[in-house]
Design brief:
mainly alpha, Multidrug-efflux Transporter Regulator, Chain: A, Domain 2, elongated
């Protein structure tokens, strides 16, 4: 069977953009990617634009955007609303910065606990394990 120029099966779409068929179906169920009509007795056909949309979704996910945020960005793209997209991205950036602060606190705490574990003597409770139990004697 010959493919129409620019018409892809779901398998070809998935392979072209580097995802699985199930990923595309998941995006369809979430309303992020259209499900083309199935011609009577035929196969649904996707376009390069569908591929671009899936790539957009994957790129946004790599930046940490949730699927709901991605849906919002896609709607904004349809209306060319750059200011609203920038506002959403700024909110996301604030969240990323807060998570980075949390990770730095975690890093500092773990460094201290690992160092304390290395200084432990025989038959002494491990500072790391005791801190996870919530022992207030370890800081």
């Amino acid at each position: 069977m010959r493919h129409r120029e620019g018409a892809w099966t779901i398998g070809r779409l998935a392979k072209t953009v580097g995802v699985t068929v199930e990923t595309i179906r998941f995006y369809q169920r979430r309303g992020l990617v259209r499900e083309p009509p199935r011609p009577p007795g035929g196969i649904r056909h996707y376009t390069p634009e569908d591929g671009a949309r899936v790539r957009f979704i994957k790129s946004a996910q790599r930046l940490g955007f949730s699927l709901d945020e991605i849906r919002h960005l896609l709607r904004l793209d349809e209306g060319m609303q750059c200011d609203a997209a920038a506002k959403l991205a700024a909110q996301h950036l604030d969240g990323v910065r807060m998570r980075l602060q949390d990770l730095r606190r975690i890093e500092t705490t773990l460094e201290i606990l690992v160092e304390q574990c290395g200084q432990g003597k025989e038959k002494v409770a491990c500072p790391l394990i005791m801190s996870l139990y919530g022992d207030k004697n370890y800081k």
